[in-house]
Design a protein that fits this description.
By secondary structure, the protein is mainly alpha-helical. It has one domain. The chain is 76% helix and 0% strand. It is built from 6 helices and no strands. The chain is globular. The N and C termini lie far apart (55 Å). The model has no long low-confidence stretch (mean pLDDT 84).
Length: 165
């Protein structure tokens, strides 16, 4: 079992028994959405770096723009599918304006985006930039799930009802 899976299993095992299956399924859906975002991210990064932004001669400057474009398009994709699939049961969040919810999503994912960007830049000094980006995405995904589950799509607490008289 991979380290990431062991950590996830340890976190899930600390939850109440009734919540454990739901969280596991939610994380699977999050992973599926993340996989689609990873494909988009990797394809856009490669296309931007090798073709679209080729006129930018400095590799690192071009990589900065390529990473920004790849992350932006993958984030839009992931927001749409996480809202429609992963957290669709949290109805209170779905009735907010899409723009407001997207801004919350981006704010919650900022840490993961920063981790991915910085790790990609750092690791690209030691390995092929596409491989570096893939490693960074895997490490940043845990940050993104926790932040979005707790902040963007969190459950609304229902106001306490007064006891019957």
């Amino acid at each position: 079992m991979s380290t990431l899976r062991r950590i996830a299993a340890a976190v899930v095992s600390r939850l109440p028994a009734k919540l454990q299956p739901m969280v596991r399924w939610r994380f699977v859906k999050f992973g599926m959405v993340g996989a689609s975002g990873t494909v988009i991210n990797m394809a856009v990064l490669y296309m931007a770096q090798e073709f679209l932004l080729r006129q930018i001669e400095d590799f690192h400057t071009r990589l900065n723009y390529s990473i920004a474009l790849a992350i932006t398009l993958a984030t839009i994709n992931n927001f749409y599918w996480n809202r429609r699939l992963t957290w669709r049961d949290r109805k209170g969040q779905l009735h907010q304006s899409a723009l407001f919810l997207f801004l919350k999503y981006v704010m919650a994912a900022t840490l993961a985006i920063a981790v991915q960007s910085l790790l990609t830049k750092y690791l690209s000094q030691y390995m092929y930039y596409v491989a570096a980006n893939l490693v960074a995405i895997v490490l940043a995904s845990v940050c993104s799930f926790v932040a979005n589950d707790r902040m963007t799509f969190r459950r609304r607490k229902h106001p306490e009802r007064p006891p019957p008289q």
